């Protein structure tokens, strides 16, 4: 009995050691009690406060689109150097080009379908850190099994439905405890949501930082800013980054000051599962739930605007341009079709005038097919005929299909 217990303990320790790197890869650690402060090493200005554990190599794009990279960490203080100013418009344009191409493959990118796109489309919401709550609302930063972030997620879901007709599914699965393996547990939830083929996948959190780091106002009332988080260990980071910049670019123009910036953590945050997966920090524990909701109600309209070019007030400029381009392309194809019809009708009329009867037209067409087209095949070649002795014709090419095309197995949702 004792020997079996020892073996079980050894297996448990081995599994923990094997799974620990995977858990760290999915999501970096957090320190809700002592947030990290990132400082610009050249100016001494504070770049960021966050509960995400900061390591050398992490990056932050601030509200003005200045990219900083962490070069030194001591305790809960990190120093970063300025790297570049990000061209968010170019990144947004790259995202829109790739996304329109993907929509075109599914038949959505026609003028009519684009105008109605949100009504038939879907986004998905889940919460990796299930206990995260707001102290002014709940009196504590942690409420199990479902913290205040679920209620904010429900507001986001309802706003998308009422404001633009976009469907959103929200998972209420809990992934406690709030530890380094939470992202591995929430990965199963994310994969389940992806079976519904959403256009985007959002993991909604709240940060831990001083009140002033996230505080803002909405119509004269307290609000809480939003920070986008990307996993820099994600092999498909570029696609997620372009999506993040497209969202930030639209929000900066229409809801200035609402986006605090974009943090790149030493993890994947399960964003390797989708090219349009983002993590949002909706305020900090010092903001109220109502403050987070006020900003999200406005900010969330960036999602359908970026994905479909539509807002509650109507199409965006980019969406209208895409519809106009699609309409012009459709018009060009229609014009070519009409030209083809006119040519066919003209040719038929010409034959009828020359042959003076339908029977004469049929004889001319048969002659054209049997004699004049045969010359195209080359000397000694003739059109395929069923009357050949082998029953297959004498103009085989060897390119026949050998069987039906393979069928893709669909998984039931």
Task: List strands and helices in order, with pairings.
Elements (H helix, E strand, L loop, with lengths): L1 H25 L9 E5 L5 E5 L8 E3 L4 E9 L2 E9 L2 H18 L5 H10 L1 E5 L8 H4 L9 H17 L2 E4 L11 H13 L5 E8 L3 H4 E4 L2 E4 L1 E6 L5 H18 L4 E7 L11 E8 L4 H11 L2 H7 L1 E2 L2 E2 L1 H39 L2 H19 L37
Parallel strand pairs: 1-5, 6-7, 6-8, 8-13, 11-12
Antiparallel strand pairs: 1-2, 3-4, 3-12, 4-5, 9-10, 11-13, 14-15
Count of extended strands: 15
* Largest beta sheet: strand ordering: 2-1-5-4-3-12-11-13-8-6-7
The helicity comes to 40-55%
State the CATH architecture of the domain at 83-315: 3-Layer(aba) Sandwich
CATH fold naming of the domain at 83-315: Aminopeptidase
Summarize the structure.
With 413 residues, the chain is α/β, with parallel strands linked by helices. The chain is built from twelve helices and 15 strands.
